[in-house]
Every structure is written in structure tokens, then in C-alpha cells.
């Protein structure tokens, strides 16, 4: 299982990271460690990849299954509590992106996660993808 946090700024933009390993733009996140609970993993992943500590609780905005990789990801809309955006070991670049920029920068499977979080509809979205495109 993995988690991702979509940090939204006061202008309604989402913070995206450009991954160092593949150059792709995505929301910050990653796989839970064995003994970790979901909110802790979310806070750890966002902090590691962006330098931002998020406020908890965060709002669940979607559940996404990668049909190829067999990974389920929980995505949350987050508020920054502290810190300054900065790159890290896994992050090549950071960017505050509008809805239009999210769709231009990220693969469909990741853009929809960010857009769902920006919309923060209730109940949360439930979607499937092949790693790139929605199915």
C-alpha cells in the first residue's frame, strides 16, 4: 500500500514533485513501512520529498489501484503546517501547479489523483489505472 499527499497552497495550486529516478511529475508519496500507520507514513513521505510538514488529519480524496503493479494508493488533500519546499534524495524539482499545469505535467494516472484532491469531493474517488492511463 502507498500514500500520497497533495499539498494545496492559498492560491489553490498543488505541489508536485519531479522524481529523480524517472523524471515524472507526481504528488509526493510512497510505500508504507511495515510498522507504520497511514497518517505517519503520509507525513513522513511528504516531508522527505518536499521539506514540508503537513497538518494532520488530512482529508482522504481517493483510492487508486494500479492494475499492473497491484498497488493500492490512498491520496489525501493536505495543508502545510511548517517547512519550506525543498528537493531531497528522491526529488529533482518541485512546482506549484494549477489544474491546467497538473494535466500537462503528469501522466493521466497521477494527474487525476491531484485533480481529485484539488476538488476534494465526498465521497472519495475510487479509480483504477495501468500505471499511466486510467482503465
TrEMBL record:
Lineage top rank: taxon: Bacteria
PROSITE patterns named among the record's database cross-references: NUDIX, NUDIX_BOX
Record-linked InterPro entries: NUDIX_hydrolase-like_dom_sf, NUDIX_hydrolase_CS, NUDIX_hydrolase_dom
Keyword Hydrolase appears in the UniProt entry: yes
Transmembrane residue ranges: none
Cofactor: Mg(2+)
SUPFAM superfamilies reported in the protein's UniProt record: Nudix (SSF55811)
Entry's Gene Ontology molecular function annotations: hydrolase activity
Keyword annotations from UniProtKB, A to Z: Hydrolase
Record carries keyword Hydrolase: yes
Pfam families xrefs: NUDIX
CDD domains from the UniProt entry: NUDIX_Hydrolase (cd02883)
UniProt cross-references to Gene3D superfamilies, sorted A to Z: Nucleoside Triphosphate Pyrophosphohydrolase
Record domain Nudix hydrolase: where: 1-119
Name the record gives this protein: NUDIX hydrolase
Amino acid at each position: 500500500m502507498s500514500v500520497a499527499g497533495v499539498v494545496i497552497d492559498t492560491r489553490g495550486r498543488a505541489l508536485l514533485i519531479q522524481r529523480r529516478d524517472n523524471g515524472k511529475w507526481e504528488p509526493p508519496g510512497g510505500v508504507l513501512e511495515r510498522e507504520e500507520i497511514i497518517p505517519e507514513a503520509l507525513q513522513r513521505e511528504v516531508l522527505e520529498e518536499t521539506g514540508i510538514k503537513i497538518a494532520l488529519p488530512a482529508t482522504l480524496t481517493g483510492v487508486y489501484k494500479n492494475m499492473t503493479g497491484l498497488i493500492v494508493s490512498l491520496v489525501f488533500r493536505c495543508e502545510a503546517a511548517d517547512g519550506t519546499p525543498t528537493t531531497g534524495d528522491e526529488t529533482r524539482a518541485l512546482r506549484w501547479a494549477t489544474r491546467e499545469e497538473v494535466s500537462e505535467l503528469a501522466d493521466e494516472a497521477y494527474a487525476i489523483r491531484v485533480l481529485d484532491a484539488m476538488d476534494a469531493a465526498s465521497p472519495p474517488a475510487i479509480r483504477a489505472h495501468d500505471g499511466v492511463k486510467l482503465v
